[in-house]
Amino acid sequence: MTNISKYVIGVDIGGTNVKLGLVDPRGKVLLRSSLATKHFGKSPEALIEAICEAVEALTGKNRLGKKDISGVGIGLPGLVDADKGVVRMLPNIPGWAEVPLRRIMERRLGLSVRIENDVNMITLGEWEYGAGKGIENLICMTMGTGVGAGLILNNAIYRGPGFAAGEIGHAPLHQKGPVCGCGGWGCFEQYVGNKRLQKDAARLFGKKDISLEDVSRRAAEGKKKALKFWAQVGETVGQGLIGPVNILNPERIIVGGGVARSLEFMKPAIEKVLKQRCMKTQAEMVRIVPALLGNDAGIIGAQVLIRHENKN
Amino acid sequence: MTNISKYVIGVDIGGTNVKLGLVDPRGKVLLRSSLATKHFGKSPEALIEAICEAVEALTGKNRLGKKDISGVGIGLPGLVDADKGVVRMLPNIPGWAEVPLRRIMERRLGLSVRIENDVNMITLGEWEYGAGKGIENLICMTMGTGVGAGLILNNAIYRGPGFAAGEIGHAPLHQKGPVCGCGGWGCFEQYVGNKRLQKDAARLFGKKDISLEDVSRRAAEGKKKALKFWAQVGETVGQGLIGPVNILNPERIIVGGGVARSLEFMKPAIEKVLKQRCMKTQAEMVRIVPALLGNDAGIIGAQVLIRHENKN
Lengths: 312, 312
Prior knowledge:
alpha/beta; homodimer; Nucleotidyltransferase, domain 5; 13 strands; 40% helix; 2 domains
């Protein structure tokens, strides 16, 4: 197990930025860098080369050699074949279709590379070093423009045979409802995704440009309307979690993403719904907790992915 | 791996009958017997003793000794701690609470005993010898008075930390809806459980005592009203499966239970809903198939459970 003492480079590719970090054997991010995703045009080649240079810069700065790096873990916002190391499709970054990223980067860098869906990467980070430490069965839900989740089941990440599992944002809340980007309708995400929440907040406060951060600030100040807003969001979040909780019987639901900063205002309502409507065992076991690793979760998750891969 | 060549006694405890079977190493049921559950009163002791005697009778009849039996697998309709071998609670068989069934029967019989939830036992049987052969990720749904499911994920049964996973019948279809026995409301089971289907059929056909079997017979004869009935049930079943399919990305959904005999009439409607409303990868991968083992599934599943336990 000599790899345990080695460092990992974590790469978190998003639609706006690519974040990189050098992660030590205990999950601490020692060094960071970032790139602007769109700067590199519409074909993956230029972006991949820029990432490779950034990886080399990170190791160079810390005077590490290849022998000190146990691998590079890359999180991507889309469908990723983690076994074959192929990026199948990224909905928000054009040009990425069936890209054998692992092979390309391993050849270019001479390092072991693993790739993973970004939500799964966050889940791995929170599971090992964050809000899910020591928990064998959990849902790590990210709430932002989209609502997704990573699943830790029987003490392992559950990706599904098509690497598409965890889409709790696309379990319908209603049988009639707004059409969703996924092609379905009435999806959970349509009721608690950022766009909808911002619209709801604008209407409630009569201010077109109010941000969800503003509403959270008002809630923190004890303003009733803002507290009511988040309680109502919490009720809807609870409704969306009944099915996953009854089906998966998780011990923990970790809530991450921008909206998670307001979890304290939503939590009583979420818990009330789950207590009222979930089955007894499931309701008694589950705890709702905030994500702990913030923006570093994906980079730290890369370390977990590489470590687990090296064990096998 | 000498156990592979041994026989297993499968025991399927239901609210009405206890079914027993001697299962050979290839999953064939060689010999059967049964008991009337209620005949043995309200305390578990008498029923357990009767089951032990029936187990001994089954081995005796076939001139087998203890050395030929690798174990006894018992499926129970309720909450079962499969790790500790304790029956936590059986909603429809009074008197069973925190019964250390495994220990009691191992002492009494001098055989290795494993216990499991009955739906999980059916799932194990269908997975190994029935409609799920060779599939690493599947949902085995049973439709009857209740609607439940067993989950095979990453090539293993997923029980959940409280042994309560798989309750797809209690994922809500609607946020307002009929109150359910589980304490929640709007649950999938309330729309496709036998009671509701029988009511719907009685109303549609204007015949109070029409059975679901009657409606299936009429559908098989090509009667339009009956075909329409099952198509509508199929649509609702499809609605209830969108969430589980998007969350778990299963390759197969096996449909068992009494209503499954009408699956052929429901299947086009189920598939239409899943194709319309599930995410692309999930919709393309999933197949809806009927259970193949019928009433033997639980007994055959016991053989799978014992075999897998002996491997560990």
